[in-house]
Amino acid sequence: MDTLQAQRFVVDGDRIRAFADATGCSHRAYRESRAVVPPTYLCGTDGLAGPDGVTPERDCRFFRTPPRAGDLLTVTVRAGDHDRLTEYRDADGLLIADAWIQGSGDDTGVVGVLADYATGWLGAESVRRFRTRLLAPVPTANLACTGEVVQEYTADGEARVDVVVTAAGPGGSVVARAWATFARAA
């Protein structure tokens, strides 16, 4: 993997709102003056060139509360032939999030639907990890999401829950899945 130069930037609330609108994320936390980033925001909306058959996947991890509009972050990108890992550090240099992406960007709308369902259920500020896999490219209209809790535990001093969220198309076939971790109120 090649490492690109680290760059600093301020998280922009207007960009968060535009991303939320473009990906169908409706949670009120994305519209506040100190808007929180949606689960897949740091993974971006682009894709990577790769060989045919590379399944679009994204894995966004937050090592504490997700960043908010106005936060100063330093970003470092490590890009491979078919995947990319991006690290986000706060003003003190602490790693607060990372985002891994593989494959084309054909999954942006579907993962937005999955993220909206999960954050509507468990809260936008409490996401700690959001991993997605697109199984079949489809339009986002008429997708039905379901979710189930698969595990509850304590990690890093907070109660957490792991969930699986599934998006199914009009015929009932599964088109995408998300595996997510959320902090829970104790």
Keywords:
single chain; mainly beta; 14% helix; 41% strand; globular
Could you describe the 3D structure shown?
The structure is a single chain. The chain has 186 residues and is mainly beta. 14% of the residues lie in helices and 41% in strands. It has 2 helices and 10 strands, in the order E-E-H-E-E-E-E-H-E-E-E-E. The chain has helices spanning 13-23, 108-122; strands at residues 2-3, 7-10, 57-62, 72-79, 83-89, 95-102, 127-134, 144-155, 158-168, 174-184. Strands 1, 2, 3, 4, 5, 6, 7, 8, 9 and 10 form a 10-stranded antiparallel β-sheet that branches. A hairpin with a 3-residue loop joins strand 4 (72-79) and strand 5 (83-89). The longest helix has 15 residues, at 108-122. The termini are far apart. The relative contact order is 0.19. The model has no long low-confidence stretch (mean pLDDT 86).
Number of strands: 10
Please give the share of residues in helix. 10-25%
Instruction: Based on Cα principal axes, name the global outline.
Output: globular
Question: Beta fraction of the residues?
Answer: 35-45%
Largest sheet: 10 strands, antiparallel
Nearest-angstrom radius of gyration? 16 Å
What structural class should be given to the helix and strand makeup? mainly beta
Helices, by number, come to 2
Stretches where pLDDT is under 50 for at least 5 consecutive residues are: none
| Secondary-structure element pattern, one letter each | EEHEEEEHEEEE
Q: Please report the distance between the alpha carbons of the first and last residues.
A: 40 Å
Roughly what is the average pLDDT, rounded to an integer? 86
